[in-house]
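look at this stuff:

>
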Amino acid sequence: MGQLVSVIEKPSSRPGIVRYVLNRALTGMGHERYRADVEIRGDRPADELARRLLETGKVDGVSINGNVVTVELHTNDADGLKEVIVDLYTYWVDGVEVPSDEELMAQVEG
């Protein structure tokens, strides 16, 4: 299951830069920076999001500060990046049946 992340995409005055404002903080007060040519070893939400964004091949760098994700694009194509962020906390995959509300309630009550 998981929860979708609410995301607002904001263009930057700098070409090739896109900012996303989320409804939750990923780094607390810290600032994290990730580059396409450097392996991401951590497993925190910010690490996982950066990994997913970089794996699209559309991104050269990611900076995350609190609830703001700044993306340096490899090309000027940001299509699909917002969806990567929205889906950060969903953990079902194709082929896995999503439980019904009744099944989830039975787990809580049981």
